[in-house]
Amino acid sequence: MTDVLGTTGLILNEPLLWEKGKRGRRGFSLPVRDVEVSPLEESLASSGPDFPDLSEVDVVRHFTRLSTWNFGVDTGTYPLGSCTMKYNPKINDKQAALPGFSGAHPLLPQELSQGLLSLMFELERMLAEITGMDAVSLQPSAGAQGELTGMLLIHAYHKSRGRKPSKILVPDTAHGTNPASAALCGYRPIPVASNDKGILSVENVAKAMDEDTAGIMITNPNTLGLFEENLKDIVDLVHAKDGLVYGDGANMNAVLGIMDVGCTGLDVLHLNLHKTFSTPHGGGGPGAGPVCVKRHLEPFLPVPRVVEKEGKYTLSGDFAQTIGRLHAFYGNVGIMIRAYSYIRTMGAANLKRASQLAVLNANYIKDRLKATYHLPYDRPCMHECVFTDKNQAGAKVMTLDIAKRLMDYGFHPPTIYFPLVVSGAIMIEPTETECKEDLDRLIAALQAIAEEAKSNPEQLHHAPTRTKLRRLDEVSAARKPVLVG
Length: 485
Ligand SMILES: Cc1ncc(COP(=O)(O)O)c(C=O)c1O
What we know:
- This protein has helices spanning 17-20, 56-68, 90-96, 99-102, 114-131, 143-160, 177-184, 202-208, 231-240, 273-276, 333-369, 390-393, 399-408, 436-455, 457-461, 474-479; strands at 135-137, 167-171, 188-192, 213-219, 244-249, 268-271, 291-293, 305-309, 312-316, 385-387, 415-416, 426-428.
- By secondary structure, the chain is of the alpha/beta class.
- Helix 7 (177-184) links the parallel strand 2 (167-171) and strand 3.
- The longest helix has 37 residues, at 333-369.
- The chain is globular.
- Bound molecules: pyridoxal-5'-phosphate (PLP).
- Pyridoxal-5'-phosphate binds at residues 82-83, 142-144, 175, 177, 219, 223, 248, 250-251, 272, 287, 289.
């Protein structure tokens, strides 16, 4: 409920700085001038940009208030499936802020960047070891750019063998970026239906695979949170038809230290450092989508590459078959430092434990809630589980209502209406960093919402009711964002 001033308790109304400004207000006070005035050079004299006149306290309060409207992993449970909003340890930020790292200019001579270059080199080696692949490029700055890189590598590989296949297979459970990346590379994405267990079947892949197909993109665990049990047979089948297998490793956080991707025969894999290796993301911030390849794809990796010779590190562009450059300089280095710090502080045993706990937490939620919410694939899951609104639909309560109401209980909503193969999907990824008490609170909130769906469904159509802004017109909000209410 808002008051006459338009505020909700201590959540104050926030005008734009332009609305708040008053001519003549100042955020500084300079000593009285004691030098002669000399006229400005004509070329520099103008009325200047249209900035509002504000005091220091106006500006500080404005930005501090806006920051309190945010909800992030540091605020509370954020079970956004597929996005892996796990807690980002502060030690990683501290390492990235070390003056030698944060002050390093990208144009610094390489002799003066040996520390940073050796960190990148070591991070590449660590990611190669974790995945079981042979070589790595840290350059792509998002998962989707890693996918595009992988597609370009596959394209370059076929071209080097005189082949020009035009299609690529993409399962119907794939993240939307997969077919988009394939199309951006000029491939026609061919959808492959998952089976009644929610995974790929050898038969469905065999039906779609032919000599004009460059390969297949497989996300494992897939976006239903299920392990692709037929992976090895599918890899063999695709290889037998001269295709390559692309692994979307964005969900690697479920299988660290458990699955050796290299052994499954995948040719190329991307990782999301901003998911699996706990670097901050959301709000379109910088990410990193390193690409890991087997030896036969290494010649095509993007340049520059970090090269070590007799203990000295250089960035080298000297690779004749490279697909070229994908990013200015060498990618989002601050993210690489954080991921490096995460891997080093965790160590091999704890990375494995993180995956085990992520899987345990998701299965706990799945089992505790399956009597309340419809579970389309009732089998052990990996790091996330997918419910639907089927049990609540009779009361005309939809997935959107459930997600919105969860905000009134103090939780960020889960991912909804994705993956597309599940109608009314509610995709929960608790991550390993939530303790049992917080998982129990989330479960209790979802159970309470299911009760409200029976006793007072109308209430849910108006949710959220305890937030600064109420139910938004989501289409207009996305197309014409207005950031104050
Ligand atoms: C399975 C999967 N693939 C690809 C991506 C794309 O990654 P990005 O958002 O960094 O482009 C995501 C993102 O969450 C994902 O979950």
